[in-house]
Amino acid sequence: MSDLPVFPEGFVFGAATASYQIEGAANEDGRGPSIWDVYSHTPGRTDGGDTGDVACDHYHRYPEDVALLRDLGVESYRFSIAWPRIQPTGQGPANQKGLDFYSRLVDELLEAGIEPAATLYHWDLPQALEDRGGWRVRETAERFAEYTAIVAGHLADRVPRWITLNEPWCSAFLGYSVGRHAPGAQEGTPALAAAHHLLVGHGLAVKELRAAGVREVGITLNPDFNVPATDSAADRGAALRADTQHNLVWTDPILAGRYPASDEDTWGELITRQDFRLDGDLDLIAQPLDFLGVNYYRPTLVADAPHREPDPAVRVATDNRYAERPWPDVRRNSMGWPVVPETFTQLLTGLKERYGDALPPIHITENGTAEHDEVAADGAVHDADRVTYLHDHLTALRTAMDAGVDVRGYYVWSLLDNFEWALGYAKRFGIVRVDYDTQERTPKDSYHWYRKLIAAHRG
Ligand code: GBH
Q: Cys-Cys crosslink for 24: which of 30, 54, 165, 392, Cβ 3.0 to 4.6 Å?
């Protein structure tokens, strides 16, 4: 592909991973169990019973992985810190060996000329905190602030870019209402309380990071691009309910200091019991950010649907009377996701339209695709579909920037094939293949393509 998109000077190219998806070493150096250890070890929860026990063994192989990043030429690497390595039970004094691991990783990155970008929470909550109520209870937000203070105290001087939470929608709704993510609960009002406590935890963590004097603070969201299946009032209403849950619940408090006007219509009686929202919370949640992290993969076509109650005893908060319809006439990746690059442009310009000057600069903290990769006879992985996906999405991103959206950086998901949560190791998002039998890493064609794109910006 010769028509490479061209980005302005200073634009940051990066790659991203997350602790539980790559580290392995689940029982080493004092790490405590997280909700994902317990969930993935529960029969029937993950495809093939896969767990993160070994994953990519990054905990031991991080020098090799940093070398891959250096050869790729990225300016920045986004990784996450495993809370249960720092505080095995989610509270109390720091586990020095856990801090030492991230300290070594950060030094290795800096030596390779790569800026570390740290995510404090990419879903691996210490199980001990889940046993006390998890994100359903406000105490977890307070513990998160203490953990943040410990980590920032050790790494603030060497890590310039910080992300408080990754995709809190997944933590709240996949975790406590859909039940497809740890801890696997299917609850109503508690899932809404979890969403709020994640926002509070974010606000408290921002304060700690500011106190530690870090350069840049942000949060990573996964805004959905919801399109009504038809122009009917019913489908447009359904798309607004989907938008409320996936997007407005997060962006309205964080960027506009208000709860979404549509939340009562969306949640009905579940939201009328709002005793988890305390006075002053909005001020805490709406503190200014240096950037908004956006993870983007695919659009969603949404239609009105009847209320469904699988079990009258269970109030499923995500049942907002909408259902996804298949996006017509497009290629699907191995996740079954429709590939529609222009919706990436529309999502970003839509954020700008809604929030205007209150929208901080954006970093795309994840974008990428899982494909049916094969190792060719020559040992290489010719992942042409991934190359096309990345090319088209970077081009769509550039179009949004031309339309006035301030985007400062792009992190490809992911550096490595890794543990794709409930879907296990069968789904491969990496630009580097991992052979899980040997732990051998093989850069795919997409790695070489991305490397060229980055090099073309170096003059
Ligand atoms: C992001 O999640 C995550 O930040 C990252 O960790 C993840 O690897 C990446 O994107 C790719 O998915 O188990 O059948 O219910 C995006 C949200 C959540 C979408 C899990 C796929 C699995 C669907 N992802 N979900 S299922």
A: 54
